[in-house]
Amino acid sequence: MNRNSENRLNAVEAVLLILADNVVVWSVIAVLSGLVDLLKAKVQLVRDLRQIQEADTTGITARKKVLKGTLITKAEKVAKGTKALAVATDNQVLLARTDYTHSDLTHASDNELADIARLVYETALPLKTELADYLVTEADIELVSTLQQQFLLAIPGKRGAVAVSAQATQDIEKVMKEIGVLLKEKIDVLVATLEPANPAFYEQYRNARTIVDLGGRHDKPEENG
Question: Which residues of 175-194 are buried (b: 16+ CB within 10 A; e: fewer)?
Answer without folding.
Answer: bbeebeebbeeebbeebeeb
